[in-house]
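Reposting from the mailing list since nobody answered there.

I have sequence plus structure tokens for a pair of proteins and want to know whether others read the tokens the same way I do. The first protein:
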Amino acid sequence: MTDIASFVAVLPKAELHVHVEGTLEPELAFALAERNGVELPYASVEEMRAAYHFSNLQDFLDVYYAGASVLLERRDFHDLTWAYLERAHADNVRHAEIFFDPQTHTARGVPFGAVVEGIRAALDEARARFGLTSRLILCFLRHLDEAAAFETLEAAMPYREHIAGVGLDSAERGNPPRKFARVFRRAREAGFVPVAHAGEEGPAAYVREALDVLRVTRIDHGNNALDDPRLVAELVARQVPLTVCPLSNLRLRVVDDLASHPLRRMLEQDLLVTVNSDDPAYFGGYVNANYVAVAEALGLGAAELLRLARNSFEAAWLDAGDRGKLIDELAAAAGA
């Protein structure tokens, strides 16, 4: 195989696990802070980036929410999303399914519509300019209560045509999926596709709850599912996708080093696993960097990388025709 980075670069791919707020680079954060008159708790871009050393998920979330304070206007959400989409296009991402956390913003008085309309404008622009298709996924913050999630779901209803799915993120420990069973039932009834973060810091039992109680179609992360062989067998039989984020797992101490990352074992057990960037501004790399890092650490070859890219299209919310075209493009690129 040619060098890994070059091979990864030519592969068309989908990204299915990226939080738009987690793509806020320090340079853009300072530019938006100046534009909006917001004072960040950092003296410089360098000082902000130096704070990106985390011992667990909560350490990261504290910095993440501080950074989000600069996002106030529709144009801020457009600029944030557009900056991500330019990077995704450079990484040959052809389709992106993007999380956003409206509660992070509405709690600060930002109108729900400003968030969705800003993001949506950038997504439409990327489709027109790059041919990059997308879906938008509203995430409920699991450290907040059920009532807050219901309020957010109701706020989303006027924007139903712009939001494809609902998810569940934020601090996993002590916040099991069943906490949001009624909210997810209402969301499914309204036509939203359900997904959930599970099995990153939480146990395999949280993955089971996400499947059985929330009735999700995809598991975000899912690392700890491997602790339950019966659960793994079901995930394989049903081909439930797992959206794994290697550099995120490393930076949040989910794994001690990438050489111990479970991705290879997931592939060996025929799980429908994909590679994604999660919160790339904070974790040191966008999607191609994640492919390269895990390939080098686990000794993945061209066949495995091609399989991961194909999995990204198989797991994406695409119609059969679009999926087939992208898989054909992938095969052509791999053979070039």
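The second protein, same order (residues first, tokens after):
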Amino acid sequence: MGVLLLKRTNRILPVYAADISGICSALYELGGMTVMHDASGCNSTYTTHDEPRWYSMDSMVYISALSELEAVMGDDEKLVRDIVDAAVNLRPAFICMGGTPIPMMMGTDFKGIARMIENKTGIPTFGIATNGMHSYVRGAGEALRWIVKRFCPPQARQEKLVEMEARCDKIHLQGAEQEGALKVNILGVTPLDFSLTGNAARLRDFPGSHGMETVGCWAMESGLDELRLAGLAHVNLVVSAVGLPAAIELKEMYGTPYVVGTPVGGSTSRRLADCIRQAARTGENQSLFDCAGEALRRDASVSLRPDLGLSGLPEDLSGEKVLIIGEQVIAGSLRCSLREEFGADQVTVLCPTEGDEALAMEGDIIDWDEDEVIRAIGESTVVVADPLYRQVCPANRNIVFVDFPHEACSGRMYHSMMRPFVGAPDGFCSGVNKRQ
């Protein structure tokens, strides 16, 4: 057991933003009050490293300022009193509490405390027993799932199922004779994955560029009122692993199918739109990755290439051994684009956050340690990763390192290098470099 723990300890590489930061990020724009149950000062870690909106957009993100005596004595009454006093003055749309390592060791009953606060304030309240031992994916995913549970009306379930069944009967096999535009929720949008470089706006525009409508963007550039309308959507689009718990909850509540994939590159975006139409026709979940292995390779004579926001990416990746390090859904979608539009035939995804075997392809690495990351980089010829991974890139190997800054990994350190990677409506540019 001791050897396993040591292997899971990073000596060089950074860890990703923690689950509590994921909660704060997912709920930031929804008008609620988020309280981290932790010692005073820890809020600055979130605001300084993980939240690029902090200086441009107000939000009610607080910390309980847990003291050593309170931790020893387990004084939950003070926590309840402080939150109730703040809520009476601020009147948030909801209250969410998130845990950290200290409450985990104290055995804090977040569900019980949430009931007490809701009884005293009349404001919807929920607690998420995060513990700081997981990445932002776990916390943000749970936060969005709770928004579904508390704010999406379950009484609409039967009407929704009837409407979905009727719609599936009316849609033509090719999708050309449908009545009205398909309505889509976009799930899993936070700055930790998509930053503030225009990706969120492009994601909102993606359905419209394919003749569909966006109901809500969970949870950037959409308010709580839009999220309440989630049941109106015919399909939910999961653009990062953060959106999966909410998609599963919405599937159970309304029967709405979901599609997994991010619109990265022109060909990949068009295939993703086809997956959405397929999900609407059949009522079954779809994944961009299901047929990725069957996708045709790009013609090397094509001069226009998709703008993936990756400066220095070789124009032809055929024969290269490519490693992509990043969040699983985004990295997997980027792989699709590299295969279909850059001719890459050997692409491995290494997921440094929580990964799902069902979304992985053969050879992908989703359960790893630092030594395995270093080995995988050393065996590759092209590496697409956050710049912090450069420090373990062997200097004696002819490896092309393509910077792909990730807010959840390096925070604001490389914000000036970040460019939008979600496909624009035209989808192409010529800004791709030849490998020397």
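Reply #1 (J.P.):
I read it the same way you do. The longest helix spans residues 266-282.
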